[in-house]
Amino acid sequence: MSSSDSFDVAEREVVDHVFEIQPSAAVDLGFHAYDGRLPDLSTGATESWASRADRLLARVEAIEPGTLTPSRAIDRFLLRLLLEDPLFGLRESTDLDRNPMGYVGAVSLTSYLVRDYAPVAERVAAIVRLLESLPKLFDQGRVRMRGALPRPFVEIALSMGEGIPGHFADAEAFAAPAGMNGRVAKARATAESALAGFLRWLREEKLPGATDDFALGPGRFQRLLFVREGIEAPFDEMRRAGEADLARNRDRLAEIARTQGVGPNELYGLMSRDHPAADEVLASARAYVDETRAFVAAKALVSIPEPAVCRVEETPVYGRATTTASLNPPGPFDAKTPEGVYFVTLVDSGWTPAQQAEWLRSLNRPALRNITVHEVYPGHYLQFLHLRSTSGSLVRKVYRSPSFVEGWAHYAEQLAVESGFHGGDAWAEVAQLHDALLRNCRLLSAIGLHTAGWTVDRAAQLFEVEGHLDPLPARREALRGTFDPEYFCYTLGKLAILDARRRVLGSRFGGSLRAFHDAVLGSGCPPIGLLDRILEDPSAG
Asked: Which among 21, 42, 39, 23 is positioned nearest to 31, based on CA atoms?
């Protein structure tokens, strides 16, 4: 067997093996043989999985890069990271032994409800299988999480869990037209009982003894940079780059504020007054989807693969504890539909009037336009349209680097303002700077929380002072950093793309932004640490 054939076989085996422990990722990508499946997260099963992953990793590393084309040599590195990432989670960050969110988060039915990839009856059958499997998953979580758990992880898992029964109710309503709501109702009752027991266990047995020990520590944080992004440079370099970007954004915001005769906080205050009413948020977001698409086309910023359809919906109840807005993209292997779903989190009726008003101020019109740039055009939705249309290898379509994905969308915000978005309106740039400062704070908080002993309160203060957030969203952002240390990815990825643009836009792309952007998106979503190599060597793309 030639090296090329041997690599092809290893590629398929690695991807299939990773999907065994991450079946929901396979479903999101469009591999529907994994529909309705939950992973076996018992200690014995994950140890067996890890042992085979070790053997596959040795096979991949035994293939000499010099025997492969430049493109496949990069794919070899991707396969390595594809295995090393979950191994890191199992053995080093021990996520399954300390984070109940991994179990509560496994109950998402969104892909089955919103993606029209198969007949309703087929999708409902998958929902039923998943619901019926949940009691076993929660039992495995109880067995694994014997020790004290980080308090933020427990609190957020409990918050997420409160919205899940409503999510199950959505599934039952979804099944009704197919006459299958009875099957869902039966499975739902079993799943809700198991969920209630798991949440009760968290609340009564784990929360009282919870600790503030959430940090990865410097060594594991540095390791995270490699297994997720292929970066070996010290994380202190990332911190310095983040501080410099924060200073640039802060200075530019102060300059705009001076032209308005106010300070930065007053500037945000003025902008936040221009917000839609609670019942107008979704309609505004839909209008901005149309506006941003027309802008991208008019400015020839990046190609828009057709067909392109993105609808706007309210964030499902279970996801409201952790997201302001998000995109459910079309999977690159879902041939039937290119449709994306742009979710926006609305006011929670359970909040106090002051909290509701605070949330609406954060969704002011300039901010919501900028969010739409990030989530839809030319951000995530357009990015995933390119991923669907690329002729890249299996692993190129499977691998999704957080810093590449989020870095592109964050870069898109700056690109839009540079290109005169919304007629060059100053408020468009203020909104973009607001979100840039937010992402700067995320990067610095991730490093502080996980390597420097920062508390949640200290991180929240950073978001209030430098990110100009009100206390409620500031604390939500700080809490996110405890369980999502890679939310540094927005700024890290944006800076990498800007740096690549500075170096190769003229020399390789003749100054054409569209050609540069098409090349970036045509490379898949590889580790951001490989972006330079891919763009500078066309044969590696």
From this structure: 23
In 329-415, the DSSP E strands lie at: 340-344
The per-residue pLDDT for 74 is 94
Residue that the structure tokens 């944080």 belong to: 221
Q: What are the φ and ψ backbone dihedral angles of 368, each rounded to 5 degrees?
A: -65, -35
Note if the pTM is more than 0.90. Answer: yes
Residues facing 311 on adjacent strands: 341
Q: Are 500 and 461 within 8 A, CB to CB?
A: no
Which residues lie below 8 Å from residue 9, measured CB to CB, with a gap of 6+?
1
Give the phi and the psi of residue 523 in degrees, each rounded to 5: -90, 0
**Residue 305 near residue 388 (C-beta atoms within 8 A):** yes
Please give the full DSSP string across 175-240, using - where no structure is assigned: HGGGT-HHHHHHHHHHHHHHHHHHHHHIIIIISTT-BS-----HHHHHHHHHHHH---S-HHHHHH
In the chain, domain spans:
3-219, 224-540
417 phi-psi bin (left φ>0, alpha ψ -120 to 50, beta other)? alpha
R_g over Cα of the chain = 23
Among 149, 109, 74, which Cα is nearest to 535's? Answer: 74
Pairing of strands 340-344, 325-328: antiparallel
Residues 179-216: tens digit of each pLDDT? 999 999 999 999 999 999 999 999 999 999 999 999 99
Tokens 């479903």 correspond to: 27
Amino acid at 253: L
Q: How far apart are CA 70 and CA 260, in angstroms?
A: 52
- The CA–CA distances, whole Å, from 297 to 281, 293, 294, 303, 373 equal 25, 6, 5, 8, 13
> CA–CA separation, 185 vs 332, rounded Å?
32
pLDDT digits (tens, 9 = 90+) for 463-510: 999 998 888 889 989 999 999 999 999 999 999 999 999 999 999 999
d(CA 29, CA 24): 9
DSSP alpha helix (H) spans, 22-150: 23-29, 43-62, 70-91, 95-98, 101-104, 110-114, 120-144
Is there a contact between 245 and 479 (Cβ–Cβ < 8 Å)?
Answer: no
Question: What is the average pLDDT across 163-167?
Answer: 89
